[in-house]
Every structure is written in structure tokens, then in C-alpha cells.
Amino acid sequence: xxxxxQPEKLLSxxxxxxxxxxxNYSYSGSPELFWYVQYSRQRLQLLLRHxxxxxxxxxxxxxxxxxxxxxxxxxFAQEEDSAMYYCALSxxxxxxxxxxxxxxxxxx
Amino acid sequence: DTGVxxxxxxxxxxxxxxxxxxxxxxxEHNRLYWYRQTLGQGPEFLTYFQNEAQLEKSRLLSxxxxxxxxxxxxxxxxxxxxxxxxxxxxxxxxxxxxxGFQETQYFGPGTRLLVL
Lengths: 108, 116
Description:
The structure holds 2 protein chains of 2 kinds.
Chain A: E1 3-5, E2 10-14, E3 19-21, E4 24-26, E5 32-38, E6 45-49, E7 60-61, E8 72-74, E9 83-90, E10 97-98, E11 102-107
Parallel strand pairs in A: 2-11
Antiparallel strand pairs in A: 1-4, 3-8, 5-6, 5-9, 7-8, 9-10, 9-11
Chain B: E1 5-7, E2 10-13, E3 19-24, E4 31-37, E5 44-50, E6 53-57, E7 65-68, E8 75-79, E9 88-95, E10 97-98, E11 101-102, E12 106-107, E13 111-115
């Protein structure tokens, strides 16, 4: 069964501190992994996808197939990073399966 | 704004009434998805279209739900005989699939449904 687990509902960090949002997945095959972000009063938008291997807004995520994880990291949190973050996976050309999300709160 | 648009943004209805939502995807996108999101949950897949063909429906999509994309452009999602459990945010997303590769799914702002 396809499943995405985000163990933390809420993560609070101080400005300038490192951030790690955890994501574990279950999928038989080779999934594609994504992180989506939703800022207050805005629509859901793609933050990054693992095949791009890009760093967006200072965030990176590495796919670890052995641990079936795709944790999102940023070395120094900023207040504007406060948002809801969703980890998601898909197979080849299939719909996205989302986790329940983690709310990141960056405290000044 | 050339992004995905949805109408209406909010809908309040009484139990038992029918409601219809519209989604206009990004114009060149051939894939269109419907998701539902309830409080404290991530979006959950309902159904999707490739051009005008409905290719997959989730078990979440009961027989009270029907979706269409008649000309391969905009899509409608109808809920008949609404129930309080249908209260949720209904999200539409579109993407371009070419040569077997799916590009990013872009989401609309959603339609928030409240069934009283």
C-alpha cells in the first residue's frame, strides 16, 4: 500500500536554527517524492521534488531508499518559512499520495 | 493569472442538496485531478482525467459524486444529496504529461464546502 507518514503535526524552531521535517514512505517500486508547502492564505505549491535535486528557498531533501525517507532540511530557519508542509509521493504518472502535513512555526 | 482556478471559492449548502464545483486548469495541461482535504489531513485523491477521459476513481468517490471534463478543458465535480461528511476543501490540480513523464501538479485555491 502507498503511504506517507509525517510523524510531527507541529514543529516549532527559533529563527536561525536548523530545521528538519521528517517524511517516511511506503511504496512497492520506485516512487517519486515531493514536498509541497502551503503558506497562510495561499494555495498549495510545489517546494521541491527529488528528481530535480534542487535547493529551493534554502531547503533540500535527500531520498534515502534504504530508510524509505525523504526528510526536508534547512540549515537556518527564517520567519517566512512558517507554513504547512506536506510530503507526497507518486508512481509513474499516478496521483499524489500526501502525508497529513507538518506545521512549521519559526519563532523570532 | 494563468494558474488553476476554481469556482466557487466557498459553498454553504443544506444536507440533501446538490452542489457543483468547477475547475479551470492551466490551458496547455492535459491532466486534471480532484482531491479532497479535511481538517488535519493532507489532500486525498478523488479522481483524475487525461484530456476528456476519466482514468481513475478513488474508493472515496461514492456514487453520489460525479466528475466530468467534457471537452478536455474545464472540469466539474458534482455531489448529489450532500451529507455533513462531505464538508471539506475540494482541490483541483493540473499537470502536463508528455512522453510518459508527468510534470509538476499545480493546485487551485480550492472550494470550501460546508454542509449544514
